[in-house]
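Dear colleagues,

As part of the handover before I leave the project, I'm documenting each prediction I ran so the next person doesn't have to rerun anything. This entry is a single chain, and its sequence is reproduced below.
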Amino acid sequence: MSSAEHQGEVSDEQKASSENPEEQAPTSADAVESAIDPEAVSADAADDTDSNDEVEEPEVQAPDPRDLRIRLLERQLGENEARLRDYIKAHKKAQAEFEGLRDRLRRDQEEQIDIAKGKVVERFLDVADNLDRSIQADQGGGTLESLLSGVALVHKMFDQALEELGLEKHDPQGETFDPMTMEANGMIAVSDASLANKVINTLRPGYRLKGRELRPALVQVGYHAN
C-alpha cells in the first residue's frame, strides 16, 4: 500500500469517529460508575440498615425475682385480708344470732316460771277460801270446836296441796341423827344406850321437794349418860 492510500484510510477513520460521538472512549465519570457494583451498594446499604436497627432496638431485661416475690406476697396478703373480713362478718352474725337465741330462751324460761307460779298459787286458792270461811263462821257466833275443826280442815287441805306439788314432809322422830338433813337444837340424856345419837324430839319437821332438801328438820338428840 502506498503512502497516499494509507493516509487516505486514516483520514476516513477519523472522519467516521467524528461523525459517531457515542462510540467514542468513555469519560472519567463513566469509568467511576462502571467501577461501582450496584449489588454491592445494595448489600452495604442493607448492612447499614440492620446495624441501625440493632442499635435502636431496646434491650429487654429479665424480671427481678424479688419483684415477683413481692407481688405474690401482696396478692396473698390481699386474699388473707378479704378472708379475714369474711370471718369477722360471719362471727358477728353468729354472735347476733346467739344473743337473740339467748334472749328468746330467757323469755321462754321466765314465761315457764310464771306459769309454774300460777299453778302453785291456784292450788292454794281453795285453802285460802276455806280459811276465810272458818274465820267468818267464828265471827258469826260459832263455837271453839267448830273453829278448831275448820282450821284442821284447812291444814289438811294445805298439806295435800303441798304433796301434789311434790313436797315431802320429813319427821325424823326415832331416826339416827343425820347432820345432812337435820339440825340439832339440844341434847337429851337417855338411860337406854340404844337411844344414843337418836332423834328424841322433832321440834320442826323438814321438807324435801322431789328428793332435794328444802329445809332440815329441827330436832333434839339423845345421848347416853353413864
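Residues 1-11, 13-36 have pLDDT under 50 and may be disordered. Helices lie at 3-19, 28-35, 38-56, 65-123, 125-139, 144-164.

All the best with the project,
I.
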